[in-house]
Amino acid sequence: MIFTVLILVLLWVFQYFFLAGYYRSARIRSVSNTAETLINAYNTGDADFELMRAAFDNSLCIVITDSGGKMLKGENNLGSFSRLLMDAQNDHGYYVLHKLSAELADEGKDQLTKIEKNEYFKSEEIIFCRSFVPEGEEETCYIYIEASVEPIDSTVGIIREQLIYITIILFELAFIITMFISKRLSNPIVNITDTAKKFAGGDFSVEFGQTGKSYQEITELSEVLDKAKDEIGKVNKLRADLIANISHDLRTPLTMVKAYAEMIRDFSGDIPEKRNEHVGIIIDEADRLSNLVSNILELSKLESGNLELNCTEFSLHDKIRDILTRYTLLIEQNGYDIAFESDEDRIIRADADKLDQVLYNFINNAINYSGENKVIRVRQLNREDCTRIEVTDNGKGISKELLPKVFDRYYRGDKVQRDVVGTGLGLSICKEILKKHGFAFGVLSEEGKGSTFWFEIPFEKPHKQSRKSEKAGEEEQIPHEQE
Ligand code: ADP
Description:
Blueprint: H1 2-17, H2 19-44, H3 47-58, E1 60-65, E2 71-76, H4 83-89, H5 95-107, E3 111-118, E4 123-132, E5 141-149, H6 153-200, H7 216-266, H8 272-303, E6 312-315, H9 316-325, H10 328-334, E7 337-341, E8 347-350, H11 352-369, E9 375-382, E10 386-393, H12 426-437, E11 440-446, E12 450-458, H13 462-475
Adenosine-5'-diphosphate binds near residues 365, 366, 398, 406 and 413.
């Protein structure tokens, strides 16, 4: 609206108030230019024709005199009331002309413009006078031009009428366009603000995308807000899960510790056999607690990116065999069949302790979830560009829907039994460690048939290694390979 007002003010000022003045100065400029042209024509001997043409085209009365006031050339297209013409016919002869040339000489100028009222025409006139010395001559000559300044009152009247219409139309248009734009622009923003207020109040069911048709930028904004909302929703849920998980996992061992401590106090304190058994349970539960706490700390350290890898080169065979020896007791006592299907040994570069953690986790999970089958295989598959390590069990497997979630924090299968020690953090710790190494990793699983957790250690000559691990780093963006 302000812009429209500005345009209208400019239109009114220029078209209405300044038009007469502008017209007059344009007319003076044109007369002065005509004089210039005519002097040139006089010098080249074309004065007669040019004089006639200029007088005819512009309705002028033109007179060229010598210094004594004698008319050398003249042309009149202004009518019989021309002052110059009447003056030339006057008894006392060339009064106006003489007066002008005398004024010119007095003021030491070579040109003069006067605006006077013509009493016969009742209009304004421009009387222009200029002195010049024709080429090849010494005597000064004068050119006089008389032009009428037509009254433009009627024109101004028409323009004013038109301007009134233009003003009304422009204001209406501006109003309609403003309404339209503001409706399209501000309505969605108002809606987004309302939705955001509801969202800030804790309502996660709101949809920013429902704000109606609008400009692309606003549509994009609402899409981004929807995404942000989903992410915040996830984090919120995760936090709730986390508290539920941690409090559950903390409460149960604490209850056990309390119960068995009370039992020792009230009942088994004096029976060494029973007391030892109960103390053993308390120790186990305390271990479970410290395990949970250290896992939480470890994961937060890994996720905050504060962990530095301490990479060394070591034999893969030695590493896996070393880990498996620790399961000997389990194999002997509980009938597990855990074996290493090796390929040719390779020297790999990784953080040995962290890799231990990953392998332990995969194997422990395989043991925990292998059910009655109890057959677990750790496999080494040498490939040209990498060494693939797989830990396979033939247990209950993981359903298709749950497969993408197993590497998520605090995810635990629905029916994980209490006796299966775990925090739901193991695989997310593995994920962070493998990501940090730049190893590709994933899981293949079929419900009822078992699961294979795998990762691939890049194997290349040192100078190519960094490029390869970058590639593996890209792959890890989709860490859960599902088959
Ligand atoms: P947890 O401490 O519960 O084992 P993890 O992060 O190690 O936590 O594993 C997350 C979940 O993934 C487990 O609760 C389980 O449901 C599922 N899972 C992991 N490994 C296996 C496996 N070998 N077979 C079946 N399910 C598995």
